[in-house]
Amino acid sequence: MADFVLVHGAWHGAWCWKRVLPGLWAAGHRAFAVTLTGTGERAHQLSPSITLRTHADDVAAVIEAEELQQAVLVGHSYAGMVITAVADRCPERIARLVYLDAVVPRPGESWSSTHAPATQAQRREAIAATGTIPPADPAVFGLTGDDAAWLERRQTPHPGGVYDEPLQFDPARVAALPRTFIDCTAPALPTIAAMRERVRQEPGWQVLEIVTGHDAMISAPRALLDALLSLASA
């Protein structure tokens, strides 16, 4: 039996794992989906004071409250920043890091560091105006029909304070943990392109591919579940 902690990316909430959680539970694992402060059902907590540390605290609190000792920590998209911060803080409580089409930061980098200048400018303009980053079009994630409609009505603006905040951590401490990158290849999200190259160039990475868009937990939940179950027994 493994313990999974699932951390959503920008604009999402714990709700996005709805199609994956039952399969983990049915296989005998414990699985906890975290909603980060200011998003999802916690959108009413949106505040300019939210930082990357706030979101790392959210995840660390679940690990502590549930008394997890060997957690498989899964971070989607932006949450690659979050799980890296948590791994630096309490590596002894983590069995594996899983970056689901996620940001894989180097020390001193922010979420924005590898984005194209046009993306940076657009998001910074929105943050200056509203303090948040507005949700993305579901089509960017390869979603259509009912799936796109479901995502569109559930997404919430993301706290802007985390966009340019650099993350300082001990790379050796994080690299000592088993690390898996799940590459969602069709369509491949442009803002993750640098990460796809990074994990294939740096040592110590296991790379899995799922032929689906960025929101695999919505568009390919069975394939994602199979990948996670394989990692639980690795």
Please provide a written account of the structure.
- Helices cover 36% and strands 17% of the residues.
- The longest helix has 14 residues, at 52-65.
- Helix 2 (52-65) packs across helix 3.
- The protein starts with a strand and ends with a helix.
- Strand 1 (3-7), helix 1 (21-26) and strand 2 (30-34) form a beta-alpha-beta unit.
- It has a single domain, classed as Alpha/Beta hydrolase fold, catalytic domain (Rossmann fold, 3-Layer(aba) Sandwich).
- With 234 residues, the protein is of the alpha/beta class.
User: How many structural domains?
Assistant: 1
Query: Main sheet: which strands, in order across?
Result: 2-1-3-4-7-8
What oligomeric assembly is this protein in?
A: single chain
Number of strands: 8
So how many helices? 9
CATH superfamily, called what? Alpha/Beta hydrolase fold, catalytic domain
Radius of gyration: 16 Å
Per CATH, the class reads Alpha Beta
> Biggest sheet, in brief?
6 strands, parallel
Shape: globular
Class derived from helix and strand content: alpha/beta
Order of helices and strands: EHEHEHEHEHEHEHEHH
Distance between the termini: 12 Å
Whole-number mean pLDDT: 97
Helix content range of the residues, please?
Answer: 25-40%
Uncertain runs are: none
CATH architecture: 3-Layer(aba) Sandwich
- Assess the beta-strand content as a share of residues: 15-25%
CATH topology: Rossmann fold
